Amino acid sequence: MRLNLSLLPLTILFALIAVASCATMKCAPVYVVEKGDTLEKIANKLKVPLKALIADNPCISNPDEIYPDCMVRIPKQTKCIKP
After folding, report:
1. CA–CA separation, 34 vs 82, rounded Å?
2. Which of 15, 25, 29, 70 lies at a CB distance of 3.0 to 4.6 Å from 33, suitable for a disulfide?
3. Domain boundaries, the chain
4. How far apart, in whole angstroms, are the C-alpha atoms of residue 68 and residue 79?
5. By C-alpha distance, which of 53, 46, 56, 48 is closest to 80?
6. Model confidence over 45-63: pLDDT tens digits?
7. How far apart are CA 17 and CA 74, in angstroms?
8. To the nearest 5 percent, what fractions of the chain are helix, strand and coil?
């Protein structure tokens, strides 16, 4: 299969735009759950109300059951927190 070289510059341009937009992001709007985390602990760590954290994560059916490596949305009013 031959590579269509006319699309190569366009592909490179889109890749550069994607990388540049990711590099300019100041913080990610998610928190990756670690072993031992609970929504209450995450809320305290991020200094957000627990109710706001639960409201921003309607896909979590039981707030008492979250698992490592799950992503929890962080309410927009929070500031970036270094890990």
Report:
1. 15
2. 70
3. 27-83
4. 23
5. 46
6. 999 999 999 999 999 988 8
7. 25
8. 40, 5, 55
Under CATH, what is the fold of the domain 27-83? Membrane-bound Lytic Murein Transglycosylase D; Chain A (3.10.350)
> How far apart are alpha carbons 48 and 6 in whole angstroms?
50
- Please give the single-letter amino acid code of residue 57: N
Residue carrying the six token digits 């992503």: 71
Rounded CA-CA distance 57/74 in Å is 8
Partner residues linked to 67 by β-bridges: none
For 63, the token pair is: 């707030």
pTM for this predicted structure: 0.57
Q: Which two tokens stand for residue 68?
A: 């490592």
